[in-house]
Amino acid sequence: MKFVLFKAIEEQQIVCFSGKINILKRENKESVGCLYLIDGLIVNATCGELYPLRAVFKLVVDYQNNDYQIIVEPELLSNSIKKIDYPHNVLVRKLEENFKQLSNPSGQKPPEHLKLLIKSEFVKSGGEVTPMEYKLLSTISDYNLVKDIYEHSELFEFEITELLVNLRQKDALKVVEVKEG
C-alpha cells in the first residue's frame, strides 16, 4: 500500500529537509499532529498523547482517510528531540505491516475489562523474555487493565496481542476477571 503522506515526506528527503511537517484539518486549520524531520528522516511525531511511533502511524493512516493538508515548516531541530531512529524504508515497512495487521485482526485480543498480573513465580525463576516482551511487561506493571495496557503501551496493537499470547504460553501472566459494578 502506498501512503499518500509518504509522498510529501519523500519530497522532503530529497532535499534533506529539517523541520516540521504540520498536519491540519483542511476545513478549520486545526492541528492534527506534527512530524519532525532531521536531514529528511522522521525523528519524532506528535498526535495527541500517543507515543511517537504510534503518532506517525495514526497521522499516516488518518491522512489517508481524511481531508487534511500539510504545512512544511523549515526549522533547525536539535538531535535531543529524536525519539524514532529508523531508516525511512524500515519505518515504511513497519507501518505497512501494522496496517496489514490492523486490517486483518487475529481475534485474540483479550476483553478490555480483564486485569493482567505478572506472576511473581515467573519473575523469581528468571523466566526468559525478549526485549519486546520486557517492554510489554513494563507497561503491565504500571497498567494492568487490558484496556489501559493497549492505550498506554508504545507498541502497536497487534504486537501487544501477539506478545500477550506469548507471555501466557510462558505462564508469565495471571488473568483476573474484574467484576463490574
Question: If you had to describe this structure to a student in words, what would you say it looks like?
Answer:
- This protein has 181 residues and is an alpha+beta fold.
- It has 7 helices and 6 strands.
- The protein has helices at residues 4-14, 52-65, 88-103, 120-124, 131-142, 146-152, 157-169, and strands at 19-25, 31-38, 41-46, 68-74, 115-118, 173-176.
- The chain has a 4-stranded antiparallel β-sheet, covered by helices on one side. Strands 5-6 form a two-stranded antiparallel ribbon.
- A hairpin with a 5-residue loop joins strand 1 (19-25) and strand 2.
- It is elongated.
- The N and C termini lie far apart (44 Å).
Indicate the topology.
Blueprint: H1 4-14, E1 19-25, E2 31-38, E3 41-46, H2 52-65, E4 68-74, H3 88-103, E5 115-118, H4 120-124, H5 131-142, H6 146-152, H7 157-169, E6 173-176
Antiparallel strand pairs: 1-2, 1-4, 2-3, 5-6
Index terms:
single chain; 181 residues; alpha+beta; two-stranded antiparallel sheet; 43% helix; elongated
The shape is elongated
Number of strands: 6
In terms of DSSP E residues, the strand content is 15-25%
Q: What are the segments in which pLDDT stays under 50 over at least 5 consecutive residues?
A: none
Report helical residue fraction.
40-55%
**What assembly state would you assign to the polypeptide chains in this entry?**
single chain
**Overall pLDDT metric:** 88
Which structural class do you get from the secondary structure elements? alpha+beta
Q: State the distance separating the first and last CA atoms.
A: 44 Å
How can the largest sheet be summarized?
A: 4 strands, antiparallel
CA radius of gyration is 19 Å
Strand order of the largest sheet: 3-2-1-4
Number of helices: 7
- Give the H and E element order: HEEEHEHEHHHHE
